[in-house]
UniProtKB/TrEMBL annotation:
Family matches, as InterPro entries: ERG24_DHCR-like (IPR001171)
Main location: membrane
Leading EC class: oxidoreductase
Protein's UniProt name: Delta(14)-sterol reductase ERG24
Pathway: Steroid biosynthesis; zymosterol biosynthesis; zymosterol from lanosterol: step 2/6
Amino acid sequence: MAPKTPKSASKSSSAPEVTPPPPGETTTVITATTTLDLPAHPKTLTYEELNPKSKPTEFFGPLGTFAVSSLCPTVAYFLYYGCNETTGCPAMTANGWRTIYDRVANNDWPSQAGKWWDWQAAGAFMAWYVYCIVCWIVLPVQPVEGTLLRDGKRKKYWMNGHYTVLLTLGLVAGFLMRPGGIEAFTWIYDKWVPLVSASLAMAFVQACWVYVWSFFSGELLAQGGNSGNVVYDWFIGRPLNPTFPGFPNFDIKTFNEVRPGIIGWLLLNISCACEQYVRLGRLTNSMVLALLFEVYYVIDTYLDESAILNQIDITTDGFGFMLAFGDLVWLPFTYGVSIRYLAFAPKDLSPLAVVAILAVEGAGLYIFRTSNSEKHDIRHGRNPKNLTFMQTKRGTKLLTSGWWGRSRHPNYFGDWLIALGWCLPTGFDTPITYFYVVFLVFLLTCRQMRDDEFCRKKYGDDWDKYIKLVPYKIIPYVY
Ligand code: NDP
């Protein structure tokens, strides 16, 4: 006889549907009951709840940030005054340093390149910045959504940096091909320090502006930049994604990160190469190598411009003096010190040296690109190499094989090798041209520690498990 369905088991009943057992058998029904107190509408967080106060812990607090914001500009100037055609690289005698000090203090540098300030250079820098904004507005754009923000929104970014680079390189090529174009382009090299000063002034103004505006704009704040200490928050960056009133799509942070500074660096490098050409009548193989490496690094940024939206600078850091200075002064004026050196101290490398330098750079590029694309793939739901991973409670996957199984930041290792390849063409006559490599060791080690800390907060005990599986921090099997 077919079992009957009890009348009580209607769909509207809260009790589960029960099928009676066949005669002679007993069935026990266990009903789990749970109560969920869901609010009628998700609670909207207030501004204060979204932007809790933070502690000024990074860079040893307010005093540390004050020291860094004074020291870094000093280093940017020092790299010029300590390494140039007038006083050497570096000036090896006490007398040499005395001369530098006197000339700098009295603003009495023999060439325009070492003057503190020059209105022409300031005007040129402003024109360059405006040109970058105009390119951003008028060139075709690809809108890309950024990471999910704490307020549940995503920002839309206009990506068209690759068109800006192409247009700029096209204009520069046209300029250089004109009679006298190469000589004229050395103008940038000849205004080195005034351009540093103009960029520094811009970074300072931007940092002040975004700090003040963040009190009125209602914009989301960076979780680490809301300590209440003026110097600390101004340096670390109070607003997460500052904009300009009336231009909600103009994200000052991403714009600075991938436009005026990094493309400006390209122009500085080209100008240095022009300087060498004007002096020698040719380019040395060391200059060609260093130039190709650095130009490629810039172009590589634009092969997948949207990848920057996953970087800590964009997702987590606020925008303040640290990033404004880093983007506008530090990157363009200190990363290419080796090329500036080669402009006035040309060097011809042996074929063996060329091969060795190419090998270092090639290895760096390979590790940098492969590791970044392995991470990019897994973050976009792809796994073409069938790499092993850890599924975390947070919902995302952590790779445990491939480059990310060898160390927790293999991309930093690749980056460092790339940087070494930029410096090696200068030979071993001076330590100053190795400044960038040494600095990068410091930067990437600090960054790795910060990211480890962020990941521990994000992933909890999953991160501890991951660290056991991948114990090396940056250099596989070494550190
Ligand atoms: P990463 O690109 O290395 O990103 C770190 C994030 O990756 C973590 O927060 C985590 O975020 C995710 N992650 C960590 N481990 C794994 C894993 N095993 N599998 C998958 N995802 C993982 O850091 P940065 O943003 O610092 O650097 C970006 C690039 O920029 C790097 O290539 C770096 O070398 C370069 N860079 C260059 C500088 C220079 O001046 N030359 C300065 C700074 C950076 P989540 O899990 O939330 O996705």
